[in-house]
Structure formats: structure tokens, C-alpha cells
Write a structure and sequence with these properties.
The complex is a heterodimer of chains A (272) and B (260). With 272 residues, chain A is an all-alpha fold. Chain A has 12 helices and 2 strands. The two termini of chain A are 23 Å apart. Chain B has 260 residues and is an alpha/beta fold. In chain B, α2 packs across α3, α2 runs parallel beside α4 and α3 crosses α4.
Chain lengths: 272, 260
């Protein structure tokens, strides 16, 4: 992990990130006082809006949001929803995907549904979920779980289908029972593909949670904060909330990448 | 000349036929009969596509014949079983498992206790000369070493018969020679009944008690040659007139004699 953090790719990425942040600071500095401060939101005309907040106002806003506890609470609520949705969606998706990859019957039965759901954005289900599950947590978590499950199902399915036939035959020739094949052949062999899908699913989970929170804002969350800041409107709050989301996505992606590297350690050790 | 005396029959194959369905039906085997005796090393050679691998996969229980019977120790073969060990043409060691876990897999399948698994794995590691590589992944081994791990993994469950499908086909000539020596050593120590499918006539003569030549598709027994050469059979033996005579017999069976 330490070597991964010091790698050339990471260093170059940091340089690019810092360069962009510096450019933003410069642009905001030049723009301050020059940009219009009047915006029209539908029928309202609002004065005193900072369209491109400078770093000083961002820091001020950030300190306020942290001290008031709004940012951390919002982040905790949104993260909790993503994690709950990920857990539920992964368990269901992986189980169905493995079953589909392993048993032809499951494959025939589920394949049409997978094709349909793959091209349907999970968010399209929001009205239905709200009617079924109410405005509370269940609808949002259910929505994230659906988006995650579709991605994880495909990952697990492809992971199983990608296992070369010779390994199935070898396990059968050694008279391995199904439980052993599941634990020692199917899961470890499909794990790299499953974790690669998890990276996509996590990103999708964050997209879905923020969108769901924006559309149906209820208790304090990052999406709620964004919706509120957009209606107010307060651009510094929007930027801070976006930065918080970006940071959370980056951290969760890093953790999944670490898990992926652990699961594929046998691939990298090569005979020289 | 030891161990060439036929004892009890391990594997009895009677009038087996097999067809691959598909766009065109392919008669892979037709009217194939043969017997393998206890502790016999039998090699099967034949032209490409003669059904050698199909035959071995039927004996392993991966394929069901359209006609005929296969008996292993008197019991009909219906599905794969641990008493019929199989060494694949491809690389079949599990790359996500360490050498140790690969060797223990068959015993795990049998539900053996950890102590027994460790003991057997340790003995096999010593036997194939891979001490110190217990925690290595197959990707860290050479192709030849990896193949020996596969052979040892099959031996761990002590099968009644060892089926080998061109196990060294993908190795270079030098490594193949080494592997043949290793295999012979293992066979000496563990006293196994072996059916080896190969396209390498010299490999067959070096290792086998008896060589069966398959005909072109549909495959059946076309010729049978008993290799009466003393063991062990060092590399120089390949230059001897006796070796050449056996080779000529097999070539005749393959329909190549007139070319020599």
C-alpha cells in the first residue's frame, strides 16, 4: 500500500489535482468583484450571490459547516445509506450472479431481467419505491441496493463464467463437494471480477444516494445540504458539499482498490 | 522386467462408442475395447483427433459413452471420482491457491483432518523436491514444476488409476525429458496404474509397459506393442537398436513405417 501511494501515477495525479486547485484559486481571485452577484431563480431575483467563491470564503464556510456539525452529520447519514445499500445489493447481487453463472436454469430465468435492468437507471424506480416503501430510509436504501445489485450480479456472473473449464473438471475429478467448490474455487476465482464490479457499484451507490437525496430531501444528508444550498442559493456550501462527496468517493474507491489488490495477489507473483 | 506380469484388471473398456453432436456429427470412438492391469503403465498414441483425449475423458467420467461399458475395479464409471486421478493437458493447478493448498485440495474434498492433510502434503512436497515452496503460488513456479504439483495433487488422494492426458505436451523437449524422469521416479515409489495419452512415441516407449496405437477417427485399437525394455530407461536407450525396433513397430501401427 505504501509503495502504491508513492507510485509515479499517484504523484502525477497529485500534481494534476494541485494544479487545478491553484487555477481555481486564481480564477476565483480574478473573478471576485467582477462577476454579477444577481441571479434569477424562476420568479425570484436574488442579490449577493458569490458565483465563484474564493478560497477564503470556502474556508470560512467549511469551518462553519464543520463546527455546526452539519457537514459531518450529513456525511455520516449519506455514507450510512450507501453502506447499507451496498451491503444489501452486494449480498443479493453476488448470490444471484454466482447462481446464474453456476446453474443454467438460473441463467435462463434471470438473464432477461438482467438485460432489462442493466439499461434502466435505478433512479427511474424512485417513484415506485417511494410509493411502496414510503419517504423514509427504506426507499433510498432500496434504490441504492437495486443499482448495486445489478452491477454486482453481472460481475459475479462474469466472474464465474470466466473460470476456465479445466478448473471445474479438476475439482470434479478430485470429487470436491459443491460447498468446497463454492468456497475454494468459485469465490476466489470470481473475486477479482467481483471486486472490480464493486468499484463501479460504489461509485454508482454515491451517484444514486445523492440523486435520491436531492429529489426527496428528508433528514440532514449531503444531498439535502446540496438541495438546500441550491435553493438558498449559497455556492460556497455547494462547493464544500461537492468536495466532501468527492473525498468520500475517493476514500471508498481506495479501500476497494486495496481489497482488489489483496484478492489478486496471486496474479502478480510471476515466475522469473 | 519387473511389474510387466499382468495381474488383476483395473480398467475394463468394452465396445465403447462416442459421438460429438453439433453441426456435423463426429464419430470420435467406435467399438473400442481394452483392458489395463493393476500397476501397469499403459501409453496410448495415435494421430491428432483420433479420440485419445475423448477416451480418457470417458474413463474419467467427464463424458458418457453412446455405447459400451467402462469398469474401474469392477464398478461401472458414471461420473468423475477420486479413485480415477486425472492429469490435464492444460495447466490445472489452481493459481489462486498456494502449492500447499493445491496439494491438500483432494483430501479436503474427502473431509480429511488437517493433521492428515499436512502430513500427506509434506510428504508429496518432499517427493517432488519442492520443499520451501509450500507457500508459493503456482504462478511463481516453472511450467514443469507446476505440472509436478498437479501430478502430486492427484496422488494425494491415492487413486486406483492415474489418467494422464498429454501432461508434458506444452513443455520444451529438455524439460519434458526431466519431467518424464520425475514421473518414472514417482511411479516407482507409489506403484500406480497409469494410462498416459501422448503424441510423443519416444515418451510412450520410455515410460510404458505397453503401448496401444489408436486408429484414425473413429478411434479404436489398431495395434498393441509390448515394451520389453529394462527399467530404468535412460536417455541413451533411445539410441539402441531395441528401442528403434519398438519405435518401428509403433510407426507401423500408425501407418508411418514406409516413411522411415
Amino acid at each position: 500500500m505504501v509503495t502504491a501511494l508513492c507510485s509515479v501515477r499517484v504523484r502525477r495525479g497529485l500534481v494534476g489535482l494541485l494544479a487545478l486547485l491553484a487555477l481555481y484559486g486564481l480564477a476565483a481571485h480574478i473573478a471576485s468583484g467582477r462577476l454579477p452577484t444577481r441571479v434569477s431563480l424562476a420568479v425570484h431575483e436574488i442579490e449577493g450571490v458569490e458565483l465563484l467563491p474564493t478560497y477564503s470564503s470556502l474556508v470560512e464556510e467549511g469551518v462553519f459547516l464543520v463546527q455546526a456539525g452539519i457537514l459531518l452529520q450529513g456525511a455520516a447519514v449519506s455514507t450510512g445509506r450507501v453502506l447499507a445499500g451496498l451491503l444489501l445489493g452486494s449480498v443479493v447481487g453476488i448470490a444471484l450472479g454466482l447462481a446464474m453463472g453456476w446453474t443454467a436454469g438460473f441463467e435462463y430465468a434471470l438473464d432477461p431481467w438482467v438485460v432489462l435492468l442493466r439499461f434502466t437507471p435505478a433512479l427511474a424506480l424512485l417513484p415506485l419505491y417511494v410509493l411502496w416503501l414510503g419517504l423514509g430510509e427504506a426507499a433510498k436504501i432500496g434504490l441504492i441496493a437495486t443499482a448495486v445489485a445489478v452491477v454486482m450480479l453481472q460481475g459475479a456472473y462474469q466472474g464465474v463464467r470466466g473460470i476456465p473449464r479445466v478448473y471445474w473438471d479438476a475439482a470434479a475429478a478430485l470429487a470436491a463437494p459443491r460447498s468446497l467448490v463454492l468456497r475454494r474455487i468459485v469465490l476466489p476465482a470470481a473475486l477479482p471480477q467481483i471486486l472490480a464490479s464493486l468499484r463501479i457499484a460504489i461509485a454508482l451507490g454515491w451517484v444514486t444516494v445523492i440523486a435520491a437525496e436531492l429529489i426527496k430531501p428528508s433528514m440532514p444528508s449531503l444531498g439535502y445540504l446540496l438541495a438546500l444550498a441550491g435553493a438558498y442559493p449559497r455556492v460556497p456550501t455547494i462547493v464544500i458539499a461537492l468536495a466532501a462527496i468527492a473525498l468520500l468517493v475517493l476514500v471508498s474507491d481506495g479501500l476497494t482498490l486495496a481489497a482488489y489488490r489483496w484478492a489478486t495477489r496471486w496474479m502478480r507473483r510471476r515466475y522469473a | 522386467m519387473h511389474r510387466t506380469q499382468p495381474r488383476k484388471v483395473r480398467l475394463q473398456v468394452d465396445d465403447v462408442a462416442f459421438m460429438y453432436e453439433g453441426g456435423t456429427r463426429t464419430h470420435a470412438l467406435d467399438g473400442l475395447s481394452l483392458a489395463v492391469h493393476d500397476n501397469e503403465f499403459l501409453a496410448i498414441v495415435g494421430p491428432v483427433g483420433c479420440g485419445k483425449t475423448t477416451f480418457l475423458r470417458i474413463v474419467a467420467g467427464f463424458l458418457t459413452p453412446a455405447r459400451g461399458t467402462v469398469l474401474c475395479d469392477g464398478r461401472p464409471v458414471r461420473a468423475p471420482g477420486a479413485e480415477r486421478g486425472y492429469v490435464f493437458q492444460e495447466d490445472a493447478v489452481f493459481p489462486w491457491m498456494t502449492v500447499q493448498d493445491n496439494l491438500e485440495f483432494g483430501l479436503r474434498a474427502k473431509g480429511a483432518a488437517p493433521a492428515e492433510r499436512h502430513a500427506v502434503a509434506a510428504e508429496l512436497i518432499r517427493l517432488i523436491g519442492l520443499r520451501g515452496y509450500e507457500r508459493a503460488y503456482p504462478g511463481e513456479l516453472s511450467a514443469g514444476m507446476s505440472k509436478m504439483v498437479e501430478v502430486a495433487r492427484v496422488l494425494a488422494t491415492d487413486p486406483a488409476i492415474l489418467l494422464m492426458d498429454e501432461p508434458f505436451g506444452s513443455l520444451d523437449a529438455q524439460t519434458r525429458g526431466q519431467m518424464q524422469d520425475e514421473l518414472y521416479r514417482l511411479w516407482e515409489k507409489r506403484l500406480k496404474t497409469v494410462v498416459l495419452v501422448t503424441h510423443d512415441v519416444e515418451e510412450a516407449i520410455c515410460l510404458a509397459d505397453r503401448v496401444i496405437v489408436f486408429s484414425r477417427r473413429p478411434g479404436r485399437v489398431k495395434a498393441e506393442v509390448t515394451v520389453g525394455l529394462p527399467r530404468p530407461r535412460p536417455l541413451e536407450l533411445r539410441l539402441s537398436p531395441e528401442f528403434s525396433a519398438i519405435k518401428r513397430q509403433i510407426w507401423a501401427g500408425l501407418g508411418l513405417a514406409e516413411m522411415s
